[in-house]
Design goal:
By secondary structure, the chain is an alpha/beta fold. The strands form eight sheets. An eight-stranded parallel beta barrel has the order 1-2-5-13-14-15-16-17, surrounded by four helices. A five-stranded antiparallel sheet has the order 7-11-10-9-8. It has a three-stranded antiparallel sheet with strand order 18-21-22. The chain is built from 31 helices and 26 strands. β25 and β26 form a beta hairpin.
Amino acid sequence: MTTQGLRITKESRRIYRIAGVLFPAQEGVTSYYRRAQELAHQIREHKGTSDSRTTPSAIYAAGLLGKIHRRVIERYLQDQEPSLFSDCLEDLAETIPDTYGVLESYQEHFPGGDASTSMAPDTLRELFITLMTRENPALMDQLGQFFDDRPLRRRSSYIPMTNRFIDYLSRLPKVSGTGKSLPDLLLEPARRFPHDLTRQLQYILEHWKEFVPDLIEDLLRVLDVISEEHRPSFPPGPGPSNEPDYSSLDPEIEQFSRDSNWMPRVIMLAKSSLVWLDQLSKTYGYSITRLDQIPDRELDLFSERGFTVLWLIGIWERSAASRVIKHRCGNPEAEASAYSLKRYDIAESLGGWEALDHLRRRCFDRGIRLASDMVPNHTGLDSDWMIERPELFLHTSYPPFPSYSYNSEQVCSAGTVEVHIEDHYYDQSDAAVTFKRYDSSTGEERYIYHGNDGTTMPWNDTAQLDYLNPDTRETVIQTILHVAKNFPVIRFDAAMTLAKRHIQRLWYPKPGHGGDIPGRSAFGLTDAQFHQAMGKEFWREVVDRVAAEAPDTLLLAEAFWMMEGYFVRTLGMHRVYNSAFMNMLKHEDNEKYRNTIKHTLTFDPEILKRFVNFMNNPDEETAIAQFGDGDKYFGVTTLLITMPGLPMFGHGQIEGFREKYGMEYTKAYWDESPDQHLVGEHYRRIFPLMKLRYLFADARNFRLYDFHAHTGVDQAVFAYTNRLGSSRALVLYNNAYEQTSGWFSMSAPYLERLEDETRHTSESLCSALDLTAKAGYYVTFHNPIDSLTYIR
C-alpha cells in the first residue's frame, strides 16, 4: 500500500465511528449521508484508493451497521453485563501483556476516540465492532480498505489478543431472548447472507426491532439508498394504460373549475413550430421563418376545417446549452429541445413578441385561439434562473456518486458561471443525474439535479426546480401568469411530476419508499415533515391564482400515472391528458376502454368531459403509424370528435405524415407530401362532425350502451348517444376487423345529479334521444359516412 493510500485509508475509517460516536444524532440521516457522499468523493479524488464499489450507500450502510452493533451491545450491557469491557480488559491485560499497546495502535490506525487507560474499555468495544465488521464479507467486498488491519498485525500480540477477546465474549451468558452469544448474534445477518448487504439489513429490520426501535427509519432509508444503485430503467412516457380506479378520490374535495362558454367546443391542432415553418417554406416556395409570415391561407384552412385552438410547440427562447449537447452527441443540425428553455420570451428567431401579436390577431379574426406550453418542472441548464438564482434548483455540494466527473468542456458560460454536464452522459453509461454549476467569482460548486420523472434516463439538458422552496413556487406561478396573459390556452408539460405525492416520491421520499431518483433517498422526509414544508398542492394554488388574475384561461395538464381524475376534480385543471384513448383503442383493448368510460360515468361524468383525447402526441409515434390510414383510423377519429372531452390532432395527422418530429427538429427529414386522398376523406367524414362539436362536447347527456350480439356483449362495438337541445346524435363504431350485428337498448349506469342528491341510474335509447316509442312514429337520421338519410 502506498504512503498516500495509507493516509487516505486511515482518514476514511473515521466515517465508521462517526455513525455512533462522534456524529451528533440530531443531525439525522441526511447529514450523515452527505458525509458519506463527501468521503466517497474524497476517496475518488485520490488515485490509487478509488474503487467503484466504494459508494456512498456502502459507506452509509457500514456506518449504520456500526451504530446498530453499538445499540445491541448497549442493550446487553444494561441487561446482563454492565462491566463487560472493563472485566474483559482486565482479563486480557493479565494474559496478554501488550494489550494496551495493541489498543494504542488500534486507536492510531482507527482514529476517533481516546486510548488512555481510563478510556480503554471504550476503545476495546470499538475494536470488537471492527472485528465483527471484518467478518462480514458483504462489507469487506465493498469497503475492505476501510478496515485493513495489516498494520496492527505487525504487533505480535494482536492476533492472540483478539482471539482471546472473542473467546472471552463467546463464553459470557447468551443475549436474552436469542439463545446466542454476543459475537454470534452480531454475526448472524452476515452468516445468513454473506454477500448480500440488502438482505442483511432486511433481516435486522425484521428480527432486531426490539434492539433498535429508533433506527427503523434509518434502516428503511439505507435500503432505499442501496436500491437506487440497482434501480432498473423504465420506458419513458405514461406507461401502460389501466382502467381508472376512482376510489382514492372519494375523500377528496370536489373542486372542478368552471368552463368559459368557448372551452367545451375546443378542437386543438398541434404544430411543431420550426418544422411547420420549414414545411410551409417548401409548400409556398419562399422562406417562412417568422410567426408573422405564416400565410393567411393556412389559417383559413384551420378555420374552414373546424379547428378552434392552434398549439404552437417550441416558440419560447430555447437553451443554447441544450443545442451544444445535441451537437456534441452527433446531430449538428439540431436545435435545442423545445422543453429546455432559456426564458419565457418568444424566440427572436421566430420574430419575438411582435410577430406573435400579428399572428394572434389574424387567428382571432378566424375564431382560433393560440395555445402554448409552459414547462414548470425544469428549465434549461443555462436559463436565466440558473445563472442568476441557483437557489431555486435542487442541488447538493458534492456529486451524488464518487464515479461522477465533470471534466468535459463547458456547455455554457455566462459571466463567471460555467456549466459542465457529467462525463458519462456522452457515452450513456450512467444515468448522470446531476450537472456541475461553477461560479469562478466565488469558487462555489453546485451539483444540480437534471429534470427527471423517475421512469427513464434523466432529461440531461434540463435543471430540476426545487418545489419545497416557496420562492421557487412563487417564481413559477408568476411566470405562469405571464404566459396566461398572452395565451388563452396553456398546456403544462409533465404536470403530474409536480403533484405533492410525486414531488415527495421523486425528490423527498418517505423512508422505505425511495429509489426512484438516484441520490435522493437520504434527503427524504416523513409525511409530517413533507406536508409541513409544502402544505397546499402547487397546482391548486396555480388554478386559483390564474382564475383570479388571468381569468378565461384554459389550463391543460399533461398528467399520467392514474392521476387524471385527481387533476381535474380536485386540483381544478380544466382538461387533462387521457392517454388511455390512444393506447387502448390502438391495441383494441376495447373492453378496457369501455370499462374506463363506464367507471368514469358512475363516479362522475364531469371527468369524462375534461379528458384530452388524442391519437398521438409529440412524444408518441404518429397517428398514421399507430392507426393506419384506412377505416380503423377514421373510426377512431370519429370517436375522437364525437366523445366528450377535448379532441387534439397531431402535427401532420390530417396530411398522413409518418415522421415523428423530435423536440429538437428544425425541419422534417423525410420527404413527405400530403396524402390528398386522406385529406379528402377528412373533408367527407371528419370535418363535418367537427362543425357539430357543440353536440358532443358535454357529458351530461352522454349515454354508453352494451351492444348485444348472439354470443353476448360485443366489447368491440362502441355505441353511444348524446344530445343538446333538439340536436341528437347516435354513434356506432366497431373497433375490430370482424363483422358483427346485434341490438342495444338500455344505457350503462351513470351518476345523475339532482338538486339535493346524486344517484346511479340508466336510460333507454328512446329516452336518451327523446324519441316516442309508439306505433305510427318514425325517426329520420343522416349517416355522414355514406351521406344518406334513413327513415325508420
